[in-house]
Hints:
alpha+beta, Ubiquitin-like (UB roll), 5-stranded mixed beta sheet, two-stranded antiparallel sheet, 2 helices, 20% helix, globular
Amino acid sequence: MVTVLVPAALRGETAGVGRLDVTATGTLRAVLDEVAARWPRLIRRLRDEQGELRRYVNVYVDGEDCRQTGGLDTAVRDDAEVQVIPSVAGG
């Protein structure tokens, strides 16, 4: 089981749930594919039309930025924690 942590800013897409339990493991792509099937509104905020991570979304697997560890091909083990952090604009 993988835990996907959803920030408050995106919980409207998960009916207010902040911790999603996902059975898929292996790669971040597999985890996000299950998220897409179960929470389609959330995945539209995370992936673009080509299925790639949106540039303003940061995803960490066990504390490591997935963009530094293989992107969607980042290894995700059982009991891993995936954290989603959208960029925040300010001014």
